[in-house]
């Protein structure tokens, strides 16, 4: 069990990757202008971020099993801060892409290692409840990032964003030094990376969970990568895009609260996931219908509601059979879904159609969710 201060820090660490990604989103138009690149090229900085993130989860997961959770968190946050400094010095677009990969690799520690810390301390429905509690913070973190990023971009452009991110990473690093306990079990048996990889590669439940996490995340981050240019088309600036985060936060917060209530009522996890997948499809369809109007923002709130419901359920249940190698298993699981997210966002950036991207992701989540529900019921 974690103390209250450590649990607050863990929540901040879980929020960190999402805030780090969405605070950057309003700066895409500034990047496009500063480096004289197209919207599709600017959106590549989001897709390469998730590819770098996949590398990072692979690195820090195994590192945390071998050397401990605390050293992995400290090292990852240090790498992230260094990547932000590199981005500030970037004089051409290629160097910015490299900086984004470095920052992503560092930020991954906030996802994979922090989730591993929670799996060290909690299990079963208690773990799902903790993920749901943290889901309240995760629900609003993208909106916080967009809102702050919109203000920073309006005043200082992309340099203001990267400076703020470096300060944020340094603050979390100090927090880990003072508050984070070491939770790695002393009797951790683990296994070689290849053994765990082979075990997970043949696990149908892991494959379905990775597809689900990827589908919901591609939907969410497609908005953050494509919407700034849609707002520009309606003659609205980065600050206006930042304000759109309020609607998204409302949807996410409602989804997280609904999740907690259903968990307390002992509603089966499969039924909760089914509700999330149906809401995802409804929101995506509405965005597609309203794609030529600024009102497309409203149903995106339904997509974020579904995201806030589904992600804690999947993350809390996917690795229940891998208690002997949590760090490595979490890293491989993260590798699977972050590679899918990176590829999906790359395709979304090329297509430049938010409604079509959301519809495709919603269809995939509905099919994968149906099969994953059966795996939960069989467990």
What does this structure look like?
The protein is 84% helix and 0% strand. The protein is mainly α and 379 residues long. It has a single domain, classed as Growth Hormone, Chain: A (Up-down Bundle). Helix 3 runs parallel beside helix 5 and helix 3 runs parallel beside helix 6 (109-121).
What is the compact description of this entry?
This protein is mainly α and 379 residues long. The chain is built from 16 helices and no strands. It is globular and about 55 Å long.
Keywords, separated by commas or semicolons:
single chain, about 375 residues, 16 helices, globular
**Element order: H for helix, E for strand:** HHHHHHHHHHHHHHHH
Report the sheet-strand fraction: under 5%
Please give the CATH class.
Mainly Alpha
| Number of individual domains | 1
The rounded Rg comes to: 19 Å
Uncertain runs are none
The total of beta strands comes to 0
CATH topology: Growth Hormone, Chain: A
Q: Main sheet, how many strands, which sense, barrel?
A: none
Which word captures the global form? globular
CATH homologous superfamily annotation: MFS general substrate transporter like domains
Q: What distance lies between the first and last C-alpha atoms, to the nearest angstrom?
A: 25 Å
The percentage helix is over 70%
Give the averaged pLDDT, no decimals: 87
